[in-house]
Amino acid sequence: MPYLRQTFADDNDLTAPQVNQLEENVRSHKHDGNEGTAIRSIDSVLDDIDSAGYQEIFSITVPGGFLGTKNACRFQALAYTESDTSESIQLRVKYGATTICTADLDIGDRNNNPDGYELQIFLYSTGATNTQAAVAKIQGLALEGTANAMRVNFDHGTAAEDSTGDLTFSVEVQASTPGAVNLEINHKSMEFLSFN
Amino acid sequence: MPYSHQSQTSADVLTGAEANQSEENIASHFHGADGVSGLFPDSDSTEVDVGTGTTSVYTFTIPAGKLAAGKALKCTILGRITSTNANRSIDLLDVSLGGSVVASLQSPLDSANLGGTSGLLIEITVLGLTANSQMVFAQCSVKTGSGTNLEAHGMIGLGSEDSTGTIAFEVEMSINNASNYDVLKEFAFIEYVEA
Asked: For a Cys-Cys bond, which of A83, A163, B89, B107 suits A181, CB 3.0-4.6 Å?
């Protein structure tokens, strides 16, 4: 049957039958906005990590049923620092009620030189709707002895959340010496990776 | 207006008007598996415990045309490494196209005791150079010990498969001593890199 163009006004509250549609055997096409891509959220708000304790830099609802048994989420962010004192970047990842993993990178004293860092987090189903795992990575330059070197830290963790319901995924960051570090987090993105 | 279920028969040849549709301001939704394949054609959440012998970690059949000139795909492998003993290494990381090893990385991890569990992240990109030649880039970056040192290894290889047909893609690994530590693949997925 012909596939008719559908138009809704902005901010329409759709009913469940309107939202949960199947399109079968339709040639690849593009959605308006971001709906046709994997990127669900881009947040370019600059977060200054300038106070003690963890600060939430990103939060999003992972819809119930999304992770299932074979889907994943990929979070990426860029960090910047020109610390003039010994410093470490500490990362904490939460999914639902679980702190699923942490990672920290001791970057040393950057001696006021601007340096960039990459934060990358994968959250994925490990084959059941109530088992998940995450890998978190921080990578960038750090002082090793008297020389700069590329360094990385990985962490791995697991959760046993019921992914059939909506759950919050959040990322928190703290600096070991807040205020002196000029640690900034920018351009955060979250992709929902849905596989056939 | 209500958004009605649309269904067409497999192998239907759509008219231009039928194929080029716009959906405006619709909340995110999933497409039928037989319809729009999108950029993420495959994932595998079956855990694989890498052994001392060559162990197949992930396989995928690359569809015809997906490695034509200028197209690429990326394979990401996620998992964990557990070690409480200093004597450990990942001995081998092999990437095969069409049943032939085209890129091989020896001892991508050989270092001090992790003192616990670390994440594992392997990223492999296969680039279509021409219809029958491919370039493979792979990176295995891991934490090497209880500190935060990076040990990153990269490798490159060339394939010569006919991309107008399907191509078998496989990643294999081995470790040197299974009694001292575990390397486990938990999740792997493919994404297409194309316009």
From this structure: A83
